[in-house]
Amino acid sequence: MKLLKSTLLATALTLPLAFAGAAVADTPPNVLVVAQNIDDIVAIDPAQAYEFTSGELVTNTYDRLVQYDAEDTTVLAPGLATDWQIDAENKTISFTLRDDAVFHSGNPVRGEDVVFSLARVIKLNLTPAFILAQLGWTPDNVEEMVTSEGNTVTIRYDGDFSPAFVMNVLASRPASIVDKETVMANAVDGDMGNGWLNANTAGSGPFALTAYRPAELIRMQANEDYFKEGPKVEQVIIRHVAESATQQLLLEQGDVDMARNLTPDQIASIDAEGIKVETYPQAAVHFLSFNQKTDSLTPEAVWEAARYLVDYEGMTESFLKGQMEIHQAFWPDGFPGAYTETPYSYDPEKAEQILADAGVDLPIEVTLDVINSAPFTDMAQSLQATFAEAGINFEILPGTGSQVITKYRERSHEAMLLYWGPDFMDPHSNAKAFSYNSDNSDDAYAATTTWRNAWAVPEALNEMTRAALTESDPEAREAMYLELQQRVQERAPFVIMFQASYQVAMDEDVTGYVNGATSDFVFYRLVEKN
After folding, report:
1. How many domains are there within the chain?
2. How confident is the model over 7-49, as pLDDT tens digits?
3. Which of 151, 255, 473, 516 would give a disulfide with 16, using CB separation of 3.0 to 4.6 Å?
C-alpha cells in the first residue's frame, strides 16, 4: 500500500497541470502536499542554514535541548532535555537528557552528541555561528564550556547575561543536535559532515528527510519513534512552485493541500469551495525612522507628531490587508514579553497642535528612502500624503534593497522606511537595536537602528537595556522589556507601525498546521487531513 501511494503521488507531482481541465484530484491520504517557493535554500546543515525555508526544514527534522514547539510557540519547553538546573552565579546550566530520544538512524541521543553538535557549529564558524558564539565560546574553549557525563550536559557561558537569554540562544536553530556517529561517518576532508548534511539530515525530530532536490522537492517521512505526540501524517511533501498563480491553480484543482506564497490579490480572489485561508503574525516589524544628523528631524515634537500622521488603519484595511497588522512596539506580538498596546492613531489635527506648541519651524522638507517594490512604495506614498497635512513633506527616494540598506548603514539618509526582525528568540535581540547605543560616533559602527539613525540613546535607557540582559528573574526581566518597549514607543526617533502577517491557503480538511512568527516556528507535526 505504501509503495502504491508513493507511485500515485509521484505521478500527481510530475504532471499536475496536464489534467487542468479534468475533475478535481485528491492528494494521497495521510500525505500533506505543499506548494511553496523553496529556491531560497542555500544550506540545510543546522550549522550553516540561515534561510527562511531551510529554517523550516531544520525545525521539523531536528531537536534542541530546549525549544519552542508546536503546542505553544510562546513557551520555551523541554526538548531533548527533560529538565535543567541554572546556577546564575557560576554561569552554568546543567541539563538532564531524556532517555527515550533516538536519532532517525536508530542511534540513541547521548550527551556526547550534544557536545559534538554545539562544538561543531563553533569550529565550522559558518553564517549562524555568531548566535552561539555570544556565549563566549571559541574553537579553543568550546569543549571546555560544553561537557557531558552520562545523561547530564553542562553548559557554561562567559558574559553578563540573564540565564533566560542563554536559554533562548540554546533554543536557536544552530543549537540543533545532530547524530555524531552518522555525521562523522560521512565527513570528507575534515568538513565534519557539512557536505553530507547539506543533502541529508541526521536529527531526532518528528520527521526525517527522505528526498531533497534543490529548487524542486523536499520529502519528509514521519518519525514513528518521536518522543512527543505525532506526527499525524505519514509524509510531508513540499514541491517547489515559484509562481504564485500556479500555486493557486494547483490548490483549487486539489493537486496540493496547501499554497504558501499567494499574493493578497490571489487570496482575495479565492472562491473555490473547500479552501480556507489562515493568517499568522510574523516577526518583522515595519517602522519609519529619522536620522538625527538631519537638524530638522531632531526635535522630539517631530517624533511625537509623526506617530499621529500615520494612517495605520487606512493602510491595513486597503493595500496592506492580510499582509500587516498594526503593531507599535519593537518586540513582535506572539513572542513572550511583547508589548501589544497601540495607543496611536491617525490624527493630523493633534499632530499639527504638537508641532505648533513646540514652535517647530514648518514646512520640513525631508527625503524618504524606500525599497522600490510593493508594499514599501505604497506605504511611502501614503506617508507622503498624510505627513504633508502637518507640513512635513517627503521626497520619496526609491532604490534597490541593497542601495537602501547601504545608505542606512552609512547614516547618509534623512528618513527611512524599513523593517527589522530578531536574530534569535530573546527580547534583547531587538532591544539592542532599538533602545541601546553606547557610542554614537561615526567610526563606532553598530548593526542597530539606533546607531544607524545617529540617535544618542539616553544613558538611562542604555542602562535599562543592559540591566534587562543580565536580570535573572524571568518575571522581572519581562517587565523590564515591556517598559523598554513602552519608552521607545513614546520617545524615540522611530515610528513603529506594523507587524508583518502571513497568509496560507489550504484545503479546509487540513487542521493542526502551526506557523509561528518566524520560519523556525513552522511545524507540521500536528497536521491532520480529516
Report:
1. 2
2. 334 434 443 433 333 334 589 999 999 999 998 899 999 999 9
3. 255
